[in-house]
């Protein structure tokens, strides 16, 4: 019998979290197949899956191939009617998988559940596509007072909170929990493997919409996301990767003039943050974080210069 849903989980050294995630997935009564793609873990993750969850379809890579490539490895082998990309640091609550399967059967498209923090507060999980306006709000710190979509604000603005409680269409949803019918994956194509981490979900949702798929936020399905569990707290990498993802979007899907303008805005924001974190570095307790952030903003400045010259791809 064809599974109703193929759950694809990419793992890298999150053995304990992965075990929790798999246990929560297998609580469903619906017909699911589960794929775990391990990106060269050294913490015993592969052995844990083999011993505790022998029914899992396991792909054990010998190195870290990145989020997109690892997901694509399982997507091309999955046999389910629908496919769910799920982070290893998540816990599926109640009947979330059944709710998602029923929603996909009803209207197709791309859907993302309501993501919750471990304390059950709402976690940002969707947004609109990058624009010069959203870049300006972020780089100028105005996002702290003006409601703008994630990922610009680290917290949900009070004026946005109610939106997370209703089913509606959005621009894109995070790859931490993203589901779509197999047909949508086939029409849209694989995740872009040139994107090692961050921004692949935005890119894929843009392409899915261009193929005619709507993207939905579905709060009736709830999943806890222990954010940061599957990545190290590396500010430099996060800042650089986020900047690269944003400017890449402008290079691919906006005009050359918009790319240069985004580069100028981003350069200004990077310079401002370099100054602020240089000042923060005098506080001993902030010194290590400040060093990592300054490294990240220096890299962001270099990326911005490339965008200003129109050389970003």
Class by SSE composition: alpha/beta
Regions with pLDDT < 50 over 5+ consecutive residues? 151-155
Strand-residue fraction?
A: 15-25%
| Count of extended strands | 11
Biggest sheet overview: 5 strands, mixed
Oligomeric state of the chains in view: single chain
Label the CATH architecture of the largest domain. Alpha-Beta Complex
Radius of gyration: 20 Å
SSE arrangement:
Layout: E1 5-11, H1 15-25, E2 32-39, H2 45-52, E3 57-61, H3 67-75, E4 82-87, E5 90-92, H4 96-107, E6 110-116, E7 126-127, H5 132-139, E8 168-169, E9 172-173, E10 177-181, H6 182-188, H7 200-210, E11 215-225, H8 235-253, H9 256-280, H10 287-308
Helix pairs in contact: 1-2, 5-9, 6-7, 8-9, 8-10, 9-10
3D structure, described in words:
This protein has ten helices and eleven strands. By secondary structure, the protein is an alpha/beta fold. Helix 1 packs parallel to helix 2 (45-52) and helix 6 crosses helix 7.
Question: How would you summarize this macromolecular structure in one to three sentences?
Answer:
The chain has 2 domains: 5-225, Spore Coat Polysaccharide Biosynthesis Protein SpsA, Chain A, CATH 3.90.550; 235-308.
Descriptive key words:
313 residues, alpha/beta, Spore Coat Polysaccharide Biosynthesis Protein SpsA, Chain A, five-stranded mixed sheet, four-stranded mixed sheet, 10 helices, 42% helix
């Amino acid at each position: 019998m064809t599974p109703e849903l193929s759950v694809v989980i990419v793992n890298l050294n999150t053995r304990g979290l992965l075990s929790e995630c798999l246990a929560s997935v297998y609580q469903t009564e619906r017909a699911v197949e589960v794929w775990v793609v391990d990106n060269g873990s050294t913490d015993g993750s592969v052995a844990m899956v083999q011993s505790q969850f022998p029914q899992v379809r396991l792909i054990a890579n010998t190195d870290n191939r990145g989020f997109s490539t690892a997901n694509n490895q399982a997507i091309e082998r999955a046999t389910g009617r629908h496919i769910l990309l799920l982070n290893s640091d998540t816990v599926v609550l109640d009947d979330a998988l059944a709710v998602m399967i029923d929603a996909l059967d009803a209207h197709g498209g791309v859907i993302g559940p309501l993501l919750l923090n471990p304390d059950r507060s709402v976690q940002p999980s969707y947004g609109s596509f990058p624009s010069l306006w959203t870049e300006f709000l972020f780089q100028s710190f105005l996002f702290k007072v003006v409601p703008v979509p994630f990922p610009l604000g680290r917290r949900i603005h009070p004026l946005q909170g109610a939106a997370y409680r209703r089913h509606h269409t959005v621009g894109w949803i995070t790859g931490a929990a993203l589901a779509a019918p197999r047909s949508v994956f086939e029409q849209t194509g694989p995740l872009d493997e040139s994107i090692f981490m961050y921004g692949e979900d935005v890119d894929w949702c843009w392409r899915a919409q261009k193929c005619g798929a709507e993207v939905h936020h579905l709060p009736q399905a709830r999943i806890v996301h222990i954010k940061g569990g599957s990545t190290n707290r590396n500010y430099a990498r996060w800042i650089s990767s986020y900047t690269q993802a944003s400017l890449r979007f402008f290079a691919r899907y906006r005009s050359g003039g918009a790319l240069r303008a985004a580069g100028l805005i981003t350069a200004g924001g990077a310079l401002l943050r370099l100054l602020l974190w240089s000042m923060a570095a005098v506080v001993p307790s902030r010194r290590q974080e400040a060093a990592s952030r300054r490294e990240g903003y220096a890299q962001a400045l270099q990326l911005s210069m490339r965008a200003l010259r129109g050389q970003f791809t």
